[in-house]
Structures are given as structure tokens and as C-alpha cells.
Specification:
The complex is a heterotrimer of chains A (194), B (562) and C (349).
Chain A: E1 2-7, H1 17-43, H2 60-81, H3 85-117, H4 125-156, H5 165-192
Chain B: E1 3-8, H1 22-30, H2 35-63, H3 74-108, H4 117-136, H5 171-199, H6 212-244, H7 257-291, H8 298-311, H9 327-339, H10 341-355, H11 364-387, H12 389-395, H13 399-429, H14 435-461, H15 478-508, H16 546-551
Helix pairs in contact in B: 2-3, 2-4, 2-15, 3-5, 3-7, 3-13, 4-5, 5-6, 6-7, 6-8, 7-10, 7-11, 7-13, 8-10, 10-11, 11-13, 11-14, 13-14, 14-15
Chain C: H1 7-31, H2 44-77, H3 96-125, E1 135-142, E2 145-150, E3 155-158, E4 160-164, E5 174-180, E6 185-189, E7 193-198, E8 204-208, E9 214-219, E10 232-238, H4 240-251, H5 261-269, H6 272-275, E11 299-300, E12 305-306, H7 309-317, H8 319-322, H9 335-345
Parallel strand pairs in C: 1-5, 4-10
Antiparallel strand pairs in C: 1-2, 2-3, 5-8, 6-7, 9-10, 11-12
Classes of the chains: A mainly alpha (194), B mainly alpha (562), C alpha+beta (349).
Bound molecules: heme-A (2 copies), dinuclear copper ion and copper (II) ion.
The site of dinuclear copper ion has 9 residues of chain C, from loops.
């Protein structure tokens, strides 16, 4: 064994790998959403037959719920940073409730479209692009809710502690992303495209 | 600012395969989360598919030896070239380069493993499963009629040929599903690599001290994140069309065939840089070591990489000069495409400058690298020819394009894959590969390569289109096709020599020691093969060439950097 | 001892390269009886492309020679020799000035190449709009054959396109509108023009201004399915007199020869009529080629076989034996019926 002297920097702090990975994932996700959004915009007004976007109703309440869940999750993040676990559990559950409300709202909207307007994914281009874009987003909400509920269960059984704040932040970042994407989807589908 | 010491461990025993029971051995490979074992799995998997894709290429070449040949049926020929292209790009090119990265990047940045070892294992098995699913198409579905329901729509799978109306069987479903699965694996690896490179570097390994291979893998992973995902999205749309009756690409219902072409090349063009950038990285490691000089213009190389990253996202429509774009948009894409020659040229010139004034050692890795530079220049220049849009109207979808991209994919990437295997084999196995067989491998493969792909340019200029299983006998293409096919056989002999060399050297190669090439990056500071934990003590570095600093304490690199 | 770059070697390198790219294809093309050579321009736009191509080739050829000579030189000059001292060569880490040079020079080259290219793009793609009286043809791509419609002349034909010659003194360009009935195809006759794709829902346009009467060969250049390789294409560039005669013969109604009434009856009663049109009969199908003047064409099945009675017989019996993947079914006729139908078809001049 031989050794050689080398130099060391005093501080050596690197970003958290969880955060880096989540940001990378979200960059990839953004590319997926971009493609679906582009397809939606490209096909506005291209349907040859069937219902048009005029039948859509702007889901204002839903949007408010989803966007405010971003605020409640921030409050939950603050709480866990300060070790206030009860407060954390409350805001976490609140976030989930808002997410679930959003999903239920989407479900009712689709039900209306399918039964009252006869719009399914195979009806025409509008149906195809609408359900796949909104559905892709809803899938992300579902995945987010599953992960949130796992955390909630572990919180209630007392397994989540203050030192997990970093990981909670990573998860919260995903939730913020889902909300941000909704702003885009909402604008494209219900405002620009209608 | 304390000085520390970097221990350089002495040689260790080379473990022998087969001492434990076979099932234990197999089990250890299947459940492994060690980045080195996964790296080896990736490379072995890809080499296997290189042979498979190569055999498909041989069948293509046998069929095209003569006009009106009947070696395979038209249907089977279409399956062959589709599977050949898909295999070579998705089951050979990407996994093998990610395999090298998996093995080498953590070692190079002085980490003990990847950031997420279990995600790493998951990614590999997803990729592997994608490959198996793709090949299951030969027997699955309506399989084993002739050749089963292997995809037969070209690796670009243009809509609406992929619509249920035109390809009723399951061929296209296999193509889309297999690539979606493999794509998730690739995404996992890309995320893992970014996290490893950003967050796992050892003390002192600042971004601008990372080896260039690591830089290039960072760029590749970033590029993967934004290019594989559009492909996945487009394939999901295709499946919605095929299974749920959607209309994304249904031209009868107002859908657009053109938008698929856009989506595919938004993925497809950056994809070719995903393949070539790791090859650049390999060359940037090997050329300096065998020239005995530091890489020339490190920061410019990094800058050029970043430039390529961004420009490559804006050139996709150079695959679409004939679809009827407006003249203004064609002109834009011509400009963007030509501009990419500038950062690429910088790389070429910097490699030349690295060799300039050096003391070149022509071991097998270096031979392959020099041939890479030689061939890549030609390939790039034919690329520029294709970027001259009006000329591309003549050359598009002709064998000239086939020649251009095989010059890159084989002449540059496969050559560098071989270089990398000869270079890192001693580290991975503790044994050297035979130099004598290596030289034979190089010269035979080199001759076969040129015999195959040089005449392809000519036959393309003579107007031979691609994707045809037969051709009229009176176009003047006959002799050239014969020569091309003979060249493919010569390449096959070269590959066989390589396989033989691998097997022989694995068993009887002479012991390598830690640092057989007298190299400078951290992986050569560990024993060969490295222990599961890589480094007994976390290394600390102060320059881009930590081992140079150790070997030349009187003249260390860090005096000259920054 | 200083070595100089081997000038004769470099010169012969240039020569070989030039031969390879420019001389070899025409040489080989001349051997071919039906050449589709991209470097043998016979029309206005093919000439434009050719001169641009030669300009681009000169530039990349120059770069090729310079870069590869530097590489060869380095490999020979700086290889390790037995006599070399044992220590490492001097380490050089870079030089901003040199690197700037090999950034700026390529940028300048790119600018020149781009501007030249852009000029030709606009010249070829955006010609002045067709004047009244210019010939207009609608090309429809089908799996795996070509339909040509001359709306102003009332002609519909298949696989063999007739257009008038267009000399410099008396320009008479033909304008094509390109459509597709099913999947993507690409129209390519190398000696006359670059290719333009035929894409469903996306009409494209191109024009051809051929300088020399003759027969020109091409084929579909976008993979479109099993029959793609056999989707050949022939263009007859006619003198004005030939063209007028051809138009006249195509505008006649179909020949009606009572001697082959049996064949005609089978054609009209069996499913043939569902897919094919023969003017003056009850056959108005549009799925397959118009057969009104079938015998005016030299080949059948988009160029797979010569248009002889024997091949027609084989075709009607089992199209897939001549052209695998063709979308015409074998009609299961008896031998006698086939003979009668073929006898009828051979009267369709
Ligand atoms: C790894 C693979 C790889 C790489 C690196 C490249 C690199 C390049 N490619 Fe290639 N290409 C493919 C793989 C690749 N390509 C594939 C697979 C296809 C076909 C896909 C299909 O249809 O199936 C294709 C097709 C393709 C086309 C479309 C052809 C057609 O279908 O009609 C075009 C057109 O512009 C093109 C151009 C280029 C250019 C300009 C580069 C440039 O990046 C090259 C830059 C390099 C140099 C120029 C050389 C070095 C530079 C110098 C020495 C400096 C001085 C030079 C100048 C100033 C000019 N490529
Ligand atoms: C990395 C990518 C890659 C690589 C390495 C290759 C390698 C080769 N390719 Fe491929 N090719 C593509 C990517 C690649 N190709 C793509 C993307 C397409 C387009 C597909 C499409 O249009 O859809 C294509 C298309 C393509 C065509 C055009 C087909 C057509 O359009 O009709 C041809 C024709 O000659 C061809 C030939 C070859 C040959 C001869 C090799 C040779 O270099 C192969 C050399 C290797 C071997 C010869 C292997 C040796 C094997 C053995 C020795 C067997 C031993 C067996 C056992 C031990 C079990 N390729
Ligand atoms: Cu039509 Cu290929
Ligand atoms: Cu490209």
C-alpha cells in the first residue's frame, strides 16, 4: 500500500439525491405532458363529427380544491420540519381530502359527458384527446394519493418522524407538480380550447 | 484546508467463477443490486442482442445479394429490418452504453454505488423484460406462422401504417409495449445516473473535475429524460388508438399522419445523440491515456457537450425534409442541423490536439478509438450532406442515408463499444484481453466495415431506396450489393474473433493488476475487479487526474487547472 | 528528423474521393439499362440540386481531406517509438486561442453553406404558380400502385405517368398534386426531381420541368407495407407531338370488341367491376387501377411484370404470385374464365 497526499475542501455538501431524482423525474414527466398538450391543441377543431368542447363545463370548484391542496401540503411540510406531528397529520389528511374531492369531481364530469353527451374516448378526436390528457393528469393525482395515503398510515402508526422531513419534501414536490400541471391542462382545455 | 491521503490498495485475488454451486451463483446475479454486477449484466445482455441483431443484418444482406432473391419472404424481410433497427438501437446501443456508465460512473466519481441501487436493479430488469417481450413476438400472438407476428413497420413505425386498419395483427402492439417497458427502465437508469453524478461525488470531485465520460453521461441522462418520454407518450397514444378506438393518428377521422412523424423524430433525433455522446465519452477517456497527455481543452469539451445537448433538441425535422414543410421551416432546420457540426467539430479537433505531440500507444482500445475518429468525421460530413435539404430530397430514404447512419452507429459507436470493452475488461475481470486476437479483431472488422458501408453510399447515389426486399436487375445495383453483402460476412468473422477473444481471455487472460494502462481516473485506484464496496476509504481528489497527481507528486495537475 | 506531410498521398486521396462520389455513380449508372441515378440530372430542379450538391461536396470534401490528413499525420508522427525516452511527453491542457480558431472557421463555413442551400430551397420549392394551360396532374398513392388523374384532360391512368418535355426555349412544366388513399408513400424519380411524400390528409405539391424526352425510372421511397419494394414508377417524357397523340388515345372510350364479349361479361358480373373502372362498361370501381386503356401500358402491377398476355393470365389467376402483398384477391376463376377475361383485357388498347 502506498499513499499520496492530496487536498480536501473543508465543506463538501452535495444536494440531496432524493430531491435531484425527483426533479429529474418531473423533467421527464413535463416532456410527456408537453406531447399530450401539443396533441390536444393541434387537434382543436379537427373533429369531423360528434360533440365539440363547447359541451364542457368549467370545473371551478375542483380547481380551487386542487390548488388549495398545494397550500395545505406546504403547511404540512412546515409542521414536520418543526416536529409538530399532530399538525402534520392534520394538514396531510386535509390535502388528501382535497385531492379526493378533485377526483370525485372529475368522475362526475366524465359521467355527465358519457351519459348525457355521448362523448367517449372513441367518439371523435375531441374525445380522444380530452380523455387522454385529462386522464393522464388524473392518473397522476391517483398515484399521488396512493403515496400520500401510505405516508398518512405511517404517520398515524407513528413511524414518520421529524427526521423524515426531507423525504416528505420530495413527495410534496411531486404534488406541487401535479397541481402546476393542472393549471396548464385547465387553461388549455377549459379556457383556450373551449 | 487539511491535506489528506488517498490509499491505493494493492492487488487482490481474482475470484473464480464456479467455486460456489451454480444455483447460488445464478441467484447472486439475479438479486444483485451492486452497480458493477448490474453493469456487467447490461453489457452481457446487449452483446447477446448485438449478435441477434447482427444475424438479422446478415439475413438482410443475404436476401439483397442478388436481385429477385428468394432467401426470405417480403413479410419476413420487413420484420427483419424492423427488428434489426429496433434491436440495435434499443436493446444494444442504449443498454450497453448505460451498462458501461453503470459500472464506471460510480467508480469514476469515487462513490460506493449508484444513488439508488434497488431502482438500478429494477431498471435493468425492466429493460431486459422489454427485450424479451419484443422477441416473444416471433412466437406470441399469431406466432410461428412463417415468422410470427414480429413488428414489420420499420423502427420509425410511421402512422397510419400502424393503425389497426393496415396492421391488423399484434405486431405493432409488441413494438409499442416492449419499447414502453424498456423505456421505463431507461428512464430509471437516467434518473439514477443524474442523482449519482450530482449527489454522490467524493470529496473534492467538483463538477469541473469530473472525468469527461461522467460529464457526457450526465448530458446523455438529461437528454434521455426529455426524449424517451415523448416516445413513450406517442406510443401510449398509438395504443389508445389501437385498443380503445382513439383517433390520434386516424386519418379517416381527421387525425394527422404528420404529427406522428414529428413526435417520432422529436424523440428520434436526440436519441442518436443519446447513443453517440457516451461514445464520445469513451474516446475522451481512452485517447488521452494512450496519447499520454491530458485531454486538450477540457472546459471547451464540456461546453461543446452542453451545446450539442441543446441544439440536438431543435433539429428533428431534418428527417422530414420531404413531407412538405414550408420553405421557411426547412431553412430553419437546415441551419440548426448544420450548426451542430460546430460543437462536434470542436470535439474532433480537441481529440486531434490531444494526440498532437503525444506518445501514441496503439493497443487495441486506441486502435478502435482512432478508427472511430476517422470514421466519425466521414459520417458527420455525410450528415452535413443530408442536411443540405435539396440534396436530401434526392437522398432521403435511400441507401445513402443507411450508409450515413451505419457509419455513425457502427463506425463510431460500435467501434467505441469495442474500445471500451478492451479498455475496461481488465478492471472488470482482473484479466487482460489478448492483444493478438484484439489486433486481428480490429483489422478484420475494420476491413469488413469499409467493404460494407463504403459502397452503400454509391448504391444510394444510384437511387436505391431502403426497406426494399428486392430490386430490379437493370438499375446497376447488382455488383455493389454483392460487395456489401460480402463485407457483412467479413464483419461477422471479426465479431466471431471478438467473441472468441472474450471467452479465451475470461479463462486464460494474463493477470491485469490494478492499473494496466497506466491511467489517471479513480476506477484504476481500486483492485481489479473492485470489491463490492469499491473504495476501502472514501477517496479525496484535487484535480481531474487524481492518479496522475499520485504518480507525479513533483508535477501535479492541480497546479495547472482552474 | 522532421517528416513532412505526404503531399502526393493527400492528392491521390482527393482524387480517390472525387472518383468515389462523382465519377463512380454515373459510370455505374451508364452500365444500367434503367438507371435511377441521382447524379444524372435531366430537369430544371434536378440541375439546381446537382449544382448545389457539387458545391456542398467540394466543401465537405475539403474538410475531409484536411481533417483526415491531420489525423494520419498525427498517427504516424507521434506514435511511440522504441527510441522514445521513458518519461511522459509534455502536458498541454488547452489553448483558448486555437480552440477559438476551430470554432470560428466552421461557423463561417456553415454560414456559407446555409445561405447557398436556402437559396435553392426557395427556388425549387416555391416556383411561380401554374399558369393557365400548364399541365396539372393529381397523383394518388395507393398500397401499392400509383393513380394519375389529369382533371383538365379527363384522363385517369395508373403507374406510368406521361408528361410533356419542357425545353429552355419553350418551358412547359408539369404541376403535381400529391395525395394518398391509405398510408404514406413517396414520389421519387431521381433523374427528374427530388422526392415528395404522399401523406393522407396532407396534400403536397411539386413540379417537374424535364429537359429531355425519354423514359425515367423511379419508385416509392417511403416504406408502405409488404408491396413497397414493388411500387415502381415510370415517367414518359414525351415530345409535344407524342404527348398529344397519347392524350388523344387515352380520351377514347374503351375498345368494345364483340369477339371477347364473354370476357367482358365475366369482368362485369364477377367482382372485378367492384374495384376497377373500364369506361363504357358497368365497371366503375376505384379501389384498383383504371383498366380502360390497360394495353397502353408497358407493365402491370406497378412495374412488377411486362404487360403480356401470359403475365396477365398469371396476374388474374393469382396476383400475389407476381407481387406479394398486392391488394387484389385471387378471384378463383376457372381456367376457361381466365382465358376469356384475359382475351378481353388484351383488347383494351
Ligand atoms: C449516433 C448516430 C448519429 C449521429 C451522431 C448523427 C449525426 C448527424 N446526422 Fe444523422 N442520422 C442517424 C444517426 C446519426 N446521425 C440515423 C440513425 C439516421 C436515420 C434514421 C432513419 O431514417 O431511420 C440519420 C439521418 C440523418 C438525416 C436525415 C436523412 C434522411 O432521412 O433524409 C440527416 C439530415 O440532415 C442527418 C444529419 C446529421 C448531421 C448533420 C449530424 C451531425 O451531428 C454530424 C456532425 C459532425 C461533423 C460535421 C463532423 C466533424 C466536424 C468537423 C470536422 C468540423 C467542420 C465541419 C463543418 C464546418 C461542416 N442524419
Ligand atoms: C447500432 C445500430 C446498428 C448496427 C450496429 C447495425 C449493424 C448492421 N446493419 Fe443496420 N440498421 C440500423 C442500425 C444498426 N445496424 C437501423 C436503425 C436500421 C433501420 C431500420 C429500419 O429501417 O427500420 C438499419 C437498417 C439496415 C439495413 C437496411 C435495411 C433496409 O432498409 O431494407 C441494412 C442493409 O444492409 C443494414 C445492415 C447492417 C449490417 C450489415 C450491420 C453489421 O455491422 C452487423 C455486424 C454484426 C454482425 C455480423 C454480428 C455477427 C454475428 C455473428 C457472427 C453470429 C454469431 C452467432 C452466434 C454465436 C449465436 N442495416
Ligand atoms: Cu408506397 Cu412505399
Ligand atoms: Cu437526426
Amino acid at each position: 500500500m502506498s499513499t499520496a497526499p492530496i487536498y480536501a475542501d473543508e465543506n463538501w455538501n452535495l444536494p440531496s439525491r432524493g430531491m435531484v431524482a425527483m426533479i429529474s423525474l418531473l423533467i421527464g414527466e413535463s416532456a410527456i405532458f408537453t406531447i399530450f398538450v401539443v396533441a390536444y391543441i393541434f387537434y382543436i377543431g379537427h373533429s369531423v363529427t360528434g360533440p365539440t368542447p363547447a359541451i364542457l363545463q368549467v370545473p371551478i370548484l375542483n380547481t380551487i380544491c386542487l390548488l388549495s391542496s398545494s397550500i395545505t401540503i406546504i403547511l404540512a411540510e412546515r409542521a414536520i420540519e418543526h416536529g409538530q406531528m399532530r399538525r402534520f397529520a392534520f394538514f396531510w389528511a386535509f390535502t388528501m381530502a382535497l385531492g379526493i374531492k378533485f377526483l370525485v369531481g372529475t368522475g362526475l364530469e366524465w359521467r355527465d359527458l358519457i351519459y348525457n353527451h355521448g362523448l367517449t374516448i372513441s367518439t371523435n378526436l375531441f374525445g380522444t384527446t380530452f380523455y387522454s390528457l385529462v386522464g393522464l393528469h388524473a392518473t397522476h393525482v391517483v398515484i399521488g394519493l396512493i403515496m400520500l395515503s401510505i405516508v398518512l398510515i405511517f404517520t398515524l402508526t407513528g413511524h414518520v418522524k421529524q427526521q423524515h422531513a426531507e423525504r416528505i419534501k420530495v413527495l410534496a414536490l411531486y404534488w406541487h407538480f401535479v397541481d402546476a400541471v393542472w393549471v396548464v391542462v385547465f387553461t388549455v382545455v377549459y379556457i383556450v380550447g373551449r | 484546508m487539511a491535506d489528506q491521503t488517498l490509499p491505493i490498495p494493492g492487488p487482490t485475488e481474482i475470484p473464480r467463477i464456479g467455486t460456489a454451486g451454480f444455483s447460488e451463483w445464478l441467484h447472486s446475479w439475479i438479486v444483485t443490486v451492486d452497480h458493477k454486477k448490474l453493469g456487467i449484466l447490461y453489457v452481457a445482455y446487449s452483446l447477446f442482442f448485438l449478435l441477434v441483431g447482427g444475424v438479422e443484418a446478415m439475413c438482410i444482406r443475404i436476401q439483397l445479394m442478388f436481385p429477385h432473391n428468394h432467401f426470405v419472404s417480403p413479410q419476413v424481410y420487413d420484420e427483419l429490418f424492423t427488428m434489426h433497427g429496433t434491436t440495435m438501437v434499443f436493446l444494444v446501443g442504449m443498454p450497453i452504453l448505460f451498462g458501461f456508465a453503470n459500472y464506471v460512473v460510480p467508480l469514476m466519481v469515487g462513490a460506493r454505488d449508484m444513488a439508488f441501487p434497488r431502482l438500478n436493479a429494477l431498471s435493468f430488469w425492466l429493460t431486459a423484460f422489454g427485450g424479451i417481450l419484443l422477441y416473444f413476438s416471433f412466437v406470441g400472438g399469431f406466432g410461428l406462422y412463417g415468422m410470427g407476428s414480429a413488428p414489420d413497420v420499420g423502427w420509425f413505425a410511421y402512422a397510419p401504417l400502424t393503425a389497426k386498419a393496415f396492421t391488423p395483427g399484434h405486431n405493432t402492439d409488441y413494438w409499442a409495449l416492449a419499447l414502453i417497458v424498456a423505456g421505463f427502465g431507461t428512464l430509471g437508469t437516467a434518473i439514477n445516473l443524474v442523482a449519482t453524478i450530482i449527489s454522490m461525488r467524493c470529496r473534492g470531485m467538483t463538477l469541473f473535475r469530473m472525468p469527461l465520460f461522467v460529464w457526457l453521461m450526465l448530458a446523455v441522462s438529461g437528454l434521455t429524460l426529455v426524449t424517451i418520454t415523448p416516445l413513450t407518450a406517442a406510443q401510449v397514444m398509438l395504443l389508445i388508438d389501437r385498443y380503445l378506438g382513439g383517433h390520434f393518428f386516424d386519418t379517416q377521422a381527421g387525425g394527422s399522419a404528420l404529427i406522428w412523424i414529428h413526435f417520432f423524430w422529436i424523440f428520434g433525433h436526440p436519441e442518436v445523440y443519446v447513443l453517440v455522446l457516451p461514445a464520445f465519452g469513451i474516446a475522451s477517456e481512452i485517447i488521452p491515456v494512450f496519447s499520454r497527455k491530458a485531454i486538450f481543452g477540457y472546459s471547451t469539451m464540456v461546453g461543446a457537450t452542453i451545446a450539442i445537448f441543446f441544439i440536438s433538441l431543435a433539429v428533428w425535422a431534418h428527417h422530414m425534409f420531404t413531407v412538405g414543410l414550408t420553405s421557411v421551416s426547412i431553412a430553419f432546420f437546415v441551419l440548426a442541423t448544420m450548426v451542430i457540426a460546430v460543437p462536434t467539430g470542436i470535439k474532433i479537433f480537441n481529440w486531434l490536439a490531444t494526440m498532437w505531440g503525444g506518445r501514441l500507444r496503439f493497443d487495441t482500445p486506441m486502435l478502435f478509438c482512432v478508427a472511430f475518429v476517422f470514421q466519425f468525421v466521414i459520417a458527420g460530413l455525410t450528415g452535413v450532406i443530408l442536411a443540405v435539404a435539396p440534396w436530401d430530397w434526392e437522398l432521403h430514404n435511400s441507401y445513402f442515408v443507411i450508409a450515413h447512419f451505419h457509419y455513425v452507429l457502427v463506425g463510431a459507436i460500435v467501434f467505441n463499444i469495442f474500445a471500451a470493452i478492451y479498455y475496461w475488461f481488465p478492471k472488470v475481470t482482473g484479466r487482460m484481453m489478448s492483444e493478438k486476437l484484439g489486433k486481428w479483431h480490429f483489422w478484420v472488422f475494420f476491413a469488413g466495415f469499409h467493404l460494407t458501408f463504403d459502397p452503400m453510399h454509391v448504391v444510394g447515389l444510384l437511387g436505391m431506396p431502403r426497406s426494399i426486399y428486392t430490386y430490379p436487375a437493370n438499375r446497376g445495383w447488382n455488383t455493389l450489393n454483392m460487395v456489401i453483402s460480402i463485407g457483412a460476412f467479413v464483419q461477422a468473422i471479426g465479431v466471431l474473433i471478438f467473441v472468441w477473444n472474450l471467452i479465451q481471455s475470461l479463462r486464460h487472460g494474463k493477470e491485469a493488476g490494478n492499473d494496466p494502462w497506466d491511467a489517471w481516473t479513480l476506477e484504476w485506484a481500486t483492485p481489479s475487479p473492485p470489491p463490492p464496496y469499491n473504495f476501502a476509504v472514501d477517496p479525496v481528489v484535487r484535480s481531474r487526474r487524481p492518479l496522475w497527481d499520485i504518480k507525479h507528486p513533483d508535477d501535479p495537475d492541480w497546479k495547472y487547472e482552474e | 528528423m522532421k517528416r513532412r506531410p505526404n503531399l502526393p498521398l493527400i492528392r491521390s486521396g482527393v482524387f480517390i474521393l472525387a472518383t468515389f462520389f462523382v465519377a463512380l455513380p454515373p459510370a455505374l449508372g451508364a452500365v444500367a439499362r434503367a438507371s435511377a441515378n441521382t447524379l444524372a440530372p435531366k430537369s430544371t430542379q434536378a440541375h439546381e440540386i446537382f449544382s448545389l450538391a457539387m458545391f456542398a461536396l467540394a466543401i465537405v470534401g475539403g474538410i475531409f481531406v484536411v481533417v483526415e490528413s491531420l489525423l494520419t499525420y498525427a498517427v504516424i508522427k507521434f506514435r511511440r517509438r522504441k527510441t522514445d525516452p521513458d518519461q511522459e511527453p509534455p502536458q498541454v491542457y488547452g489553448s483558448l486561442r486555437i480552440e477559438l480558431a476551430w470554432t470560428v472557421i466552421p461557423i463561417l463555413i456553415v454560414i456559407v453553406l446555409f445561405l447557398t442551400t436556402a437559396r435553392i430551397i426557395f427556388a425549387v420549392q416555391d416556383p411561380p404558380p401554374p399558369k393557365n394551360g400548364d399541365l396539372q396532374v393529381t397523383v394518388v398513392g395507393h398500397q401499392f400502385w400509383w393513380e394519375f388523374r389529369y382533371p383538365t384532360l379527363g384522363i385517369v391512368t395508373a403507374n406510368e405517368l406521361h408528361i410533356p418535355v419542357s425545353t429552355r426555349q419553350d418551358p412547359d412544366p408539369t404541376y403535381l398534386t400529391l395525395l394518398s388513399a391509405d398510408v404514406d408513400h413517396s414520389f421519387w424519380v431521381p433523374e427528374l426531381a427530388g422526392k415528395t411524400d404522399l401523406i393522407p390528409n396532407h396534400p403536397n405539391h411539386m413540379w417537374i420541368s424535364p429537359h429531355k424526352p425519354g423514359v425515367y425510372y423511379g419508385q416509392c421511397a417511403q416504406f408502405c407495407g409488404t408491396g413497397h419494394a414493388n411500387m415502381l414508377l415510370t415517367v414518359y417524357v414525351d415530345t409535344p407531338a407524342q404527348f398529344a397523340a397519347w392524350v388523344k388515345s387515352q380520351r377514347r372510350p374503351a375498345v368494345d370488341d364483340p369477339a371477347v364479349a364473354a370476357g367482358r361479361h365475366i369482368f362485369e358480373m364477377d367482382a372485378c367491376a367492384n374495384c376497377h373502372t373500364i369506361n363504357g362498361t358497368t365497371a366503375h370501381g376505384t379501389y384498383g387501377p383504371d383498366l380502360t386503356h390497360l394495353m397502353s401500358r408497358a407493365t402491370i402491377g406497378a412495374g412488377v411484370a411486362a404487360n403480356t398476355a401470359a403475365n396477365l393470365r398469371e396476374w388474374v389467376k393469382n396476383p400475389n404470385s407476381l407481387k406479394p402483398g398486392a391488394h387484389m384477391p385471387a378471384m378463383q376463376l376457372t381456367n376457361q374464365q381466365i382465358d376469356e377475361v384475359v382475351a378481353y383485357l388484351t383488347t383494351l388498347h
